[in-house]
Amino acid sequence: MSERKNAPQNLSDLVDPVDQVDVDAVMAEYDRESNTRRFSGVPRVLVRYMLAAFSLYVFYMNLISVWPEQIRRASFVGLIVFMAFMLYPAKKRSAKRENYIPLYDLILGVIGAVCYFYYVVNFSDLAVKATRITPFDTLVGAVGVLITAEVCRRVVGLPILVVASTFVGYAFFAGYSLRRIVYTLFYTLDGVIGTPIGVCSTFIVLFIILASFLEKTNIGSFFIDIANSVAGWATGGPAKVAVISSALEGMYSGSSVANTVGSGSVTIPVMKKTGYDKDFAAAVEAAASTGGQIMPPIMGAAAFLMAEMTGVPYSKIAVAGIFPAILYFAGIFLMVHFEAKKTGLKGLPREAIPGFFRLFLTKGYLFLPIVVLVVMMSIGYTPSRAACLAILAAVIVSSFRRETRMTPKTFITALENGAKNTVAVAAACSIAGIIVGVVSLTGIGLKLAEGLLFLSGGIDIIALFLTMIACLILGMGVPTTANYVIMATITAPIILKLIPETPVLAAHFFVFYFGVVADITPPVALAAYAGAAISGGNPLRTGVIATRLAIAAFIVPYMVVLNPAMLLINASLYQIVQFTITSLAGMFALAGGLEGFMRDKLSTWQRILAVGGGLLLIHPDLLTDLIGLAMIGVVVAFQYGIKTGRDKLVAA
């Protein structure tokens, strides 16, 4: 009884003080969005209320105002630009200086905001002028675009800016005038204030604020404890806890790096403590946290963008993402299990495991905001209103316990954090809008499709492979939302051109998945670097292991295109049963083959059969399915049948 009384109350209690990391320092190092200026005293109060006021402005703009879309978006970006220059220094090291904003940042912030509010004030006149804008209008637009690009460089980084600059350079090369380019990129809904910012200013920003309020309820720790109660006792328990908790946190988290650092600061030290290699421990967390971006119902906020860009209702997209997400996390879970069996790792002691039902009864109410969100959208509420109701639910459930009860100060802090986290996403979406604008202006997307069609020789699988490479390159170092916009604008049309029978949603899922896994694919692999910073491991080796663990993410997109029924698009019951069996069997075989272990060590021929059989199940054809299942069946028979019988004879 005394042992149980003194047992750890949650997983974080198992982390030795020597293994604890400075979460803020890791975030600042590997997540540019967290590298903000430091304020104290009166400046801190002013910044806090500036950001909180922005969040309130967003609520007003979405719930009350009836402004034209151009005015809504331009004012939103103008405020984002001003806040970005107040929060983000020109150089990373400058963030260490407290209460200091250089004069040039104040000037740039004001000029950038003025450019967008010039558009707001003169919207009617500019609409009449259309492409006949004056030289002064052109100057204002050009300055606005350049200052927005500087915001992106500071907040998001260079990769997406290099891509956007290349596209703008192509527009000049194609013979378009400066006035025409500026008009398209600044004054139309095809540029900076295009679809990405439109979705960001209506849906995404409210979900970011919702995530901030959910953090105040301490739901992240609850997810880790729930995962611990479910899987902590099992073979290799701490790694399985990381997989489950990261999948749960993915329901509201919009960043692979933030998810890795948030849950990894607890799960990685515990994994190391139970015997996992430090690089493997970091890779598990990085791969699972990256998978959070593909986890319905929010999918890193990309689900709302996908609904806008495909014309498919959000509810159908959320449902379509369920089975691919299950396969992704099943693949990681199985590889973790086989690794633990191979190295003889055990689970956590029973006294360190909280009771599931007791935990759910005492803290299960923390799920209520997410339940409210899903139910409201399912019955027809817009995502904006559903998010607002979920925020209200989060405020209510926070009051159930004294330690999470919101005071006016914590309420303002939640609004502040929501606005601060919005800056980075909005900056990325605005630059993504530039790419969309150039594609719309020049038709370069069609030229890229024709080039890939020539390189692939018209062979579907080669065309998909080349598209995958393009997605991995374009997605490196780019936040999830902007990442998806780039993929949807450049690479999704390529698939639809090369394989015309592909459903639009399947093409978008293909490019979205490969854009997301760029976060763990070397050489950039930001999530892997963040995990390695916590584990003390090698970042490159961590990225390689994470890529192997996330093998499902490199296979599921092909399965989705070749068999769209996996997205539950016009799928019959027979098809659902068929792809469920074959897909899970394929994941099991691939995990065992890549780890070289199932019940026991796999011989070389068994590994070849397991991996080959798993890959054959990708193609939705009865013949390949039967051959693949037969190959897997031989391996399973040797591992679980013949060898088990032989062991019993020896024991007898």
Defining traits:
transmembrane; about 650 residues; 3 domains; membrane; disordered N terminus; transmembrane helix; 31 helices; TRAP transporter permease; mainly alpha
How would you describe the overall organization of this protein?
- Keywords: Membrane, Transmembrane, Transmembrane helix.
- The chain crosses the membrane at residues 46-67, 73-90, 102-121, 133-149, 156-173, 193-214, 280-305, 317-336, 356-377, 383-401, 422-446, 452-474, 481-499, 505-530, 542-561, 573-592.
- It holds the Pfam family DctM.
- This is TRAP transporter permease.
- The model is unreliable at 1-8 (pLDDT under 50).
- The chain has helices spanning 2-5, 23-30, 41-63, 69-87, 103-121, 123-129, 135-155, 158-173, 178-187, 195-216, 219-231, 237-249, 256-273, 278-291, 302-310, 314-320, 322-343, 356-363, 368-378, 383-398, 408-442, 444-456, 460-475, 480-498, 504-516, 526-535, 539-549, 551-562, 573-595, 604-616, 622-651.
- It is built from 31 helices and no strands.
- The protein has 3 domains: 11-17 and 201-404, no CATH class; 23-199, no CATH class; 581-652, no CATH class.
- It is globular and about 80 Å long.
- The two termini are 40 Å apart.
In short:
With 652 residues, this protein is mainly α. Helices cover 73% and strands 0% of the residues.
Q: What is the helical fraction, as a range of percent? A: over 70%
Number of DSSP helical runs: 31
Q: What sort of overall outline do the alpha carbons produce when their principal axes are compared?
A: globular
**Radius of gyration using CA atoms only:** 25 Å
Largest sheet: none
